[in-house]
Q: What sequence folds into this?
């Protein structure tokens, strides 16, 4: 197994037709590379001249160590990680290719070094993280809800909702609460609503508006902005949806709003409009599923599960040991927009055992 560092055009050529996250796209990786201070490595695994794996990783060096992660810190990107593309349909062959690819990447990155904090969050379709465990890393499952929208109808999807959600959708008066697709101005309003919600919880938004703005401009037809507003045009809520070649992601938005004058939840009808478009808009014919993007908060999971999605695991792979516990806490701070390594990198990364 040979690991090569790829250029963007080589990455684009090797990317499969389906089965990857929107942030695996060349456009999104270029954007992350521009915004982050980490070094992006586009790793390709080859058996001879046959490409069998892709792995984007971001490396950031500090005084006493380094962080190697996929996705990078602080941009609201929840999952990235490896893509494995074995040529054989046989399970034994697929497992063998996955194991060789993972071990070769770890060796190439020197990810087992005591001075390295290694942290990967995989796409749900990467279902076999065992080679990472066999190489000494820890594995923890996280979860998302995904609605299967392939070969179905709006009536069938609505029937899979909980009774409360079905009632909301059927009682929705679109003269009272208008749902539409919008543009950059609506995206900024949605971003501000997210920032206000984070402030209420004494947290900082994990991504700056400049990144969101550039993401919308860069991904172009891979993005749609959905807005709920009053009949008078007053903003109520919004959802920024991102699209890979086969999946729609409820990336940001759906914030709780103070307007309780509606008989239905604005966020419920936003989700319903997104689902209807996936099922009925010819421009979205290739989209097979709607991903709620997260199902890890106990408070929010009952609501998200009411849309009839299937609970899907994805895997967090991390450096082992006691030092990780403190570094992991620092990583969680960064996930909420704080900078655990920025002001005192020695204090943070020295916990890795050096």
A:
């Amino acid at each position: 197994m040979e690991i090569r560092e790829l250029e963007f055009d080589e990455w684009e050529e090797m990317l499969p037709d389906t089965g990857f996250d929107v942030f695996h796209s060349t456009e999104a990786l270029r954007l992350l590379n521009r915004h982050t201070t980490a070094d992006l490595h586009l790793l390709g695994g080859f058996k001879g001249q046959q490409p069998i794996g892709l792995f984007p990783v971001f490396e950031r060096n500090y005084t006493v160590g380094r962080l190697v992660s996929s996705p990078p810190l602080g941009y609201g990107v929840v999952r990235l990680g490896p893509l494995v593309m074995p040529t054989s349909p046989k399970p034994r062959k697929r497992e063998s290719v996955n194991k060789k690819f993972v071990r070769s990447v770890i060796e190439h990155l020197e990810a087992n070094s005591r001075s390295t904090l290694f942290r990967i969050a995989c796409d749900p379709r990467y279902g076999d993280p065992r080679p990472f465990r066999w190489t000494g890393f820890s594995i923890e499952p996280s979860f998302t809800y995904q609605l299967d929208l392939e070969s179905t109808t709006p009536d069938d999807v609505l029937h899979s909702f909980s009774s409360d959600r079905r009632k909301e959708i059927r009682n929705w008066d679109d003269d009272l609460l208008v749902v539409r697709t919008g543009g950059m101005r609506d995206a900024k309003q949605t971003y501000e609503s997210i920032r206000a919600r984070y402030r209420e919880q004494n947290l900082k938004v994990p991504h700056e508006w400049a990144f969101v703005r550039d993401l919308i401009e860069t991904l172009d037809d891979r993005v749609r902005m959905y807005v709920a507003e009053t009949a008078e045009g007053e903003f109520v809520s919004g959802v920024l949806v991102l699209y890979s070649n086969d999946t729609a992601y409820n990336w940001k938005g759906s914030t709780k709003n103070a307007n309780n004058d509606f008989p239905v939840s604005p966020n419920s009808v936003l989700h319903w409009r997104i689902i209807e478009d996936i099922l009925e808009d010819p421009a979205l014919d290739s989209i097979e599923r709607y991903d709620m993007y997260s199902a890890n908060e106990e408070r929010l999971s009952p609501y998200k599960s009411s849309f009839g999605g299937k609970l899907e695991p994805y895997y967090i792979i991390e450096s082992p040991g006691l030092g990780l516990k403190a570094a992991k806490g620092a990583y969680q701070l960064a996930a909420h927009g704080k900078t655990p390594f920025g002001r005192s990198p020695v204090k943070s990364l020295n916990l890795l055992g050096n």
Residues 145-312 form a domain with the Aminopeptidase fold (CATH 3.40.630.30). Residues 91-109 form the longest helix (19 residues).
